[in-house]
Amino acid sequence: MIEEILPPEVAAAEAFDDAGPRALFPAEEAAVARAVPKRRSEFATGRACARAALAKLGLPPVPIVPGPHGAPQWPPGVTGSITHCAGYRASAVAHLSDVASLGLDAEPNGALPDGVLDRIAVARERAWLPELAAAVPGVSWDRLLFCAKESVYKAWFPLTRRWLGFEQAAITVDPQAGTFTAELLAPGEALDGRRLAGFDGRWLVRDGLVLTAITVPA
Ligand SMILES: CC(C)(COP(=O)(O)OP(=O)(O)OC[C@H]1O[C@@H](n2cnc3c(N)ncnc32)[C@H](O)[C@@H]1OP(=O)(O)O)[C@@H](O)C(=O)NCCC(=O)NCCS
Fold first, then answer.
1. Which value, to the nearest 10 degrees, does the dihedral of the CA atoms of residues 152, 155, 160, 165 take?
2. Block mean pLDDT (10 aa), the chain, length 218
3. From ligand 1's centre to the CA of 124, what distance in Å?
4. What is the model's pTM?
5. Which of 54, 125, 131, 168 is spaced 20 to 30 Å from 97 by Cα?
6. Which atom of ligand 1 is closest in space to residue 64's alpha carbon?
């Protein structure tokens, strides 16, 4: 499913439960040693997806340990992203020569809990949400907004190593094309000096899930 919103140079793998093989390397095991079983399971299946995606690029299985801010540490020359939500886990990876950064997010296709929208939406997003909800039923557009913003953060962080708040990006969604854009409301400079004005992403709603994916070209 996730491949549908990723370009061909990105390899991906997904799972809908934690039933598959999901052995961890010792360094990964240590990262979740004190976590509750649910967290250990999603972490392990996320790693299994990541290694399956790396294998599609012809790369061997390696530990993918979380860095100090939670971002997965990919092998040299590779970037990637991991997501998990109830009933879904996925990872996407690419060679840094093709893709500078990736951001994936998955959420259940249901309305956000009370109070969350006020914390994550900027004024212009609050303006288009009711219009889209009226025009295109069947999609929890508030959840899709949240999902898009989380994928923005996951694509942003490896490029900058900095925090980005929900109020620092404005999302616009194209409901027909299955795309979205994120305009950065604060100037963004990547570690390599490139200026970041925003991100282009794709979204998919199917089988009770909202998926978003951002691929930043090299
Ligand atoms: C980090 C965050 C985006 C994760 O999203 P989530 O919906 O809670 O959880 P998901 O299951 O989809 O993703 C979790 C995965 O994100 C990845 N991740 C965590 N921190 C990350 C970071 N700083 N950069 C990139 N990826 C990160 C990890 O792979 C993690 O899974 P793992 O710990 O099993 O490896 C979220 O918890 C967060 O902190 N959001 C606040 C920042 C934000 O979204 N700003 C909006 C900007 S417009």
1. 20
2. 98 96 93 96 98 98 96 98 98 98 98 97 97 93 98 97 96 97 89 91 98 97
3. 24
4. 0.97
5. 168
6. 35
